[in-house]
Amino acid sequence: MQRLAMNLETLEKLQGTNAKVDYISSMFSNAEDGDLPTLAKLLTLDLNKNNVGMNKAKAWICRFFGIFDEEFDMLYESTEDFGETVRIMEAKDTHSPISLKELILFLEKDFSKDEDFTEFKGFFEGLSDIGRKWFSKFWIRTPNIGIQTKGVYKALAKRFDTPLATVELDCAFNDISFVVECYIGDKTVPTTLQHGKFIKPMLAKVKPISQWPREVVYDIKYDGNRYQIHREGDSVIIFNRRGKVVTHQFLDVVERVKTYKADNFIIDGEIYPIRSDGSPDEHKKMGTRVHSKTWEKASTVEVKWVAFDCLKWEGTSMLNSILRERWNKLGMGFGGDIAHYQIGGDPMAFYNRAISEGFEGIMVKDLQGFYNPAKRDWIKYKPSRVDLDVVIVGAKTGEHSKSNLLTSFEIAVKDDTSDTGYQSIGRVGNGFTDDELHSLTSRCKRIVSSWNPKTSEYRLMPQIIISVDADAVSRNNKGEYGLRFPRKTRFREDKVLSEINTITDVINLY
Fold this sequence. Notes:
By secondary structure, the chain is an alpha+beta fold. Helix content is 35%, strand content 23%.
């Protein structure tokens, strides 16, 4: 742990993505073989949820040092960094030998009970000051080392003299720690489709029409959640887009899937809420289906499943088949549960049909394209409007009757042009119901990283993802990008930070 903390101190100070990639590659080269898989897991934040927010972490750290929250806040104002605030509380060079595996165990532990503090205290006591700094930063999942997952993949590619594309594909099929174990043992990483083994889904981004493929198919962009369904005989498994098994939430879909003619496949698609007449219902109804503790409660929300890609057909992988061939398989064995589509033609005509039927837009796909796991090779199309997935990074309270609520939210996209993490694109305050503002205020106050008394603004850890649309992208005389008349369209609990839009997407829209 101490060696890791010292390396992270150096990494934090380096400027430029290439310099950071080179340094991480050297960390991989110098690490013991047994530690390397765990190190890769840590640097990509491939960690299980621990239900520890900033408020809980701060409360326990203040309790450990015997200080009031206000004292911590005063120090935080000067450092503007949670981990650095923890470090300067006590100069301490001594430390207990703690392995990376022990570190991961504590980072993933659900410290939900007050009696767990004793265990935390014993662990925290054994760390040096910089060890406490970096444990705290990873504990609340904001290490801010200035490099994204792809940078870690580049470092692995360099360390093992392997093409980056190979590393990306291997990690699309497997956990990164398992991939590294295979590299160390000079073993082939399994990238074959297997029943019950989740594969990261292909993604989409915004592209100007000039960059569309020549042969396209349009299919409806459903306002639901993305799922991957595996079937082998009577065994049906449903994964959400993060790879978690959620079969128990969709027992009605399972029964529907069992009626298909094909009985050995992996298909990609969407589940969305519907009204009694079969028309699409509000997306927020999915929350009841997904978060209800009993099937009786969940099943009060009627849903529909639609497939829009076929990854495996009758035991044979379709990943190396073009989309036209994969669509043909969908038509052969999945009844009417297939996304509405149109090959070529006027995209506006198909878009208008989708909107008139209550859907949110259309997708544009290359008929000659392959299914590339975790790659953004599909295209989202919502003409005359801007549609982005963003993360909330700041918030302000409202006025008068809403002075006790957060009502204005600063939003940001990933900065894929540098290693700064995120880039603000303005604020959004429209599109929220009163119930949503109450709930969002409660969620935001659990992830506050700082408060500016001059502007009365909270800075937030980047955790809450929402979709917004706007009339256009604007740019001021300082070169900063923003949105014209933005409004929240939905909360994206089904997405992770690596899947939100980038500043390059925004520039393309501009």
